[in-house]
Design brief:
Enolase-like, domain 1, 13 helices, about 20% strand, oxidoreductase activity, Diverse_Substr_Oxidored, FAD-binding molybdopterin dehydrogenase, oxidoreductase, FAD-bd_PCMH_sub2
Amino acid sequence: MHPFTYTKAADTREALNAGRRGGRYIAGGTTLVDLMRETVEHPGSLVDISALPLREVTATKSGGLRIGALVTMAEAAAHPKVHALYPVVSQALELSASPQLRNMATIGGNIMQRTRCTYFRDVTADCNKREPGSGCAALHGYNRTHAILGTTDGCVATHPSDAAVAFAALEATVHLLGPAGERTVPFADFHLKPGSTPHREQALRPGELITAVEIPPYPRPLKSGYLKVRDRQSYEFALTSAAVALHLLGGVIREAKVAAGGVGTVPWKLPAVERELIGQRPSNALWTKAAERAADGARPLEHNRFKVELLKRAVERQLRVVGGGK
């Protein structure tokens, strides 16, 4: 681990001043500290924001839900409003990491976490995320767990967060605070696809910190759930996952929100699947037809071709679980 300075911010103003000078924000530290130990990351200055007043889950005036950035994953998963209104979020959080990590890791840190790509974490391997212009070892290496959607020749790493998949499906908004003031970013725009700059992963401006994630209101009843497919039952990242939320009225699907994880370079929204569902009546035939669109645009690699079919089956299964049908 490289030397660094440490400051614990007493308030938001102090945190922003330190962030403006290049400090890296840290709260639970469950990702950043690991990367520092492995010398993947070596910030010169850490700014501890754990004392900031960002630990509330509140209903918004419009009927949505706002989750403070410093609410822990465990707290968010167990919160009565999250659990009752958006089971897909609770389930995604409960299927993440271990209980010990969920007790430490925060919502803001969760959506900021970096890829678990082994080549990214191996400082001897070529990785454009870690060292722009060095190449991508995963392209011709062992790439079973890598992405099939949103990839480029510069990067095929998956985004690891389960909660981010649920937030993407629900079209949440990320609230930010920085030297220039407050602003919001749609969740779909917060995570950046690799393009020609795979080292840029979030749409954050210098010195900005996340203050909350806000889920918009949806008509009720809204049924939702999260499915995670992985190599083992606990403490494992997704090979693929599916977040589904459906609003049915009069036996017809009026709202459909679907996203996938474990297969994309960012939490991957599935609008083609959603379009197949809107205005239709639940049925097994519908779920199968809609799920066929889940892998549109996929570019599988040598070792992860199985993910194309696995993604379709995961989406179909979760549509059936959430929506029922005959």
